[in-house]
Queue: 2 jobs
Job 1
Amino acid sequence: FHKRAVITATNEGAKNVRSFYYHVDYTEEPSLPPQTAYFCAQYHNEFPEKLGRDYLILDAVGQGHYVGTVMSARSRSPFWFGEGDVRIYVDGDAKPTIQGTGTEDYFLMAWGLNESLFPYFGCTYMSCDYENLGTEYCLYRWHIADPIRFTKSLRFEIEHTGWITGDETTTGETAGHVEREDDIATVAFWYQVGQPKRFTTLPPLAARRLPNLDVIIEGKTLLPTAKHSPGVLEVQKGYDWTGDGQLRFMPTDDEPILEVEFSIEKAEYRGLILRFTYAEDYGIYRVFLDGKNVNEPADYMAGQKITDCDFYSPTLKVKENYLGSFQFTPGKHTLRLVCVGRNPLAKGRSVGLDSIRLRERWLKQRKPLQ
């Protein structure tokens, strides 16, 4: 800054903040050269992305250099969201000056994503497997060693294409280059001479929150009608569990079974998401919906299936499992969990069901792109 700087933090929540800590470091110089560039940042989101055009990350006018991107995304369709190419237009070029080869390539993690932290790129958060319906990501890429310089303007866009399962394609088959409608939010970071052009404004809190896509049946509500083999069934409170806690079953025999009921008010095609707990004393279970074994596609391209869910983890965690999409009819449905063994490292055969989530699906057939 040449003269002064103001930093504000605004509580937009419904509750008071109990405590707030901050630390600001800065240096003072007698003066700065007239053409010293300002550090700029701009947030933008689309929930969901708009069909028929690329998503805009930055539209800058002036002289400067681009230094980084943070992207958060939530998949609204099953399978892989990240085939979209970055397209960067420098100084008014009609065609992309820089043409990428895929979202994960831009974030320097080709052939998929994994949680990782590196100096110039990384994935700080990935909620579950990247083929799940509703997987959330947070990615970053810093152009410190490779700044993108511009003298007149810079426009940074990215496609929103990827793989989609056959229930959303015109061919009825899984396709790898289809326009998707996922939820995405980005922050662009750059330096430029003079004050920046603002191509968008910071939306209010309600517009920055992800829309709710789920009908949620909490573990507590499943307890009254639950059936199980010998053992203890209880609601366990605390941790990161939904509402009043997870439904935990601690069996006392070698063939544990837990069956719960839930109801649907109207006929809908929705994704079945089971939010399970993973822990050191949890077993391997097979899942049945209304008497039929349901299994998560492990590799859509290879057609492999996961028939059993291994809930062992050396550390406690809660994770969503997408078990496919179904045409649910009104009325009661049963979910049956059958223990088929345990991990050699597991200390028991328990199971913890946090919640059942019926997730909204796009009722569209998309034409694969050429």
Job 2
Amino acid sequence: MGYIVAVDGGGTKTSLCVSDLKGQNRKYVYTGCTNYKSIGIKKTKENLKEVINKALKILGISIADVEYFVMGLSGNDSEKDVQVLTGILKDIGINGNYYLCNDSELALFAGTDTPGIVVISGTGSIVYGVNNDGKKVRIGGWDYDFNDLGSGYWIGREAIKHVIMHCDGYFPNSNLFDRIKKYFNLEKIENFTFYITASKKNFTKIASIAKLVVEEAKNGDELSCSIIDKAVYYLAVQAKEAYKRLKFPDGNQKISVVLAGGVLSSDIVSEKFKSKFIDMVGRMDNIHFIHLQEQPVEGGIKIALKHLQKIRILKN
């Protein structure tokens, strides 16, 4: 019996799904980060090897029993990245029988079987799309510090900037500042400037502040609402640009827009995004919004099944 392995390699967590050649009897294994830009090549190899070996051990099989791998890895942003990641895969025993892509592609196909766009806002953000002709477009997701607009990290960083400016007398107090003070167990908000500047930058910790901003936006806090509105604007601009570049045909064909990631799982954020995106593209009759329910790694199994089908057709 042959097997398929899909890997969703994120900047925080990596998910692996292994199935039979019909996509059934699925097993799941997890490990930490596999973004080589965050943890280096050596640690990325170790984590990928660990998660794959765990899956093989569960099934009592060897890597030779895997007919196809789909490797959706964060940090796969350029031709240079492809070269680096190809070398990593070769070193851990994966040769030839694989498809390497950015992890956002897995999220798209986890949500839909048709051409469309995925908008991801979690710790980071990215927009990825595919049209009927197979053309692929990627917008954003280039770097936490310089890009990833509208992401959890961006929202958290905006909140931090406003806290520091409040401490320096730029802004009056806000309910959001009180929430942040409690979140970091500070006696007074003025201590935050010393705390944050002395701490080692932790992208995940900063991104976790986004949930406080979302909650306070729901409560009507003016500052929180303005940060969320700006985040939504950036995400909608990226999605609109992907939509424009993909040149989807006019007519009755439904275009799927998959919403993924913790930030977009919030009703207040997702509804604001939908409204802003529709305003920007100027139509809504053919837009079908999908809130991603499946794990993104499930999209890797779908991709693998399609690739195997093409291979069989070519052989026959």
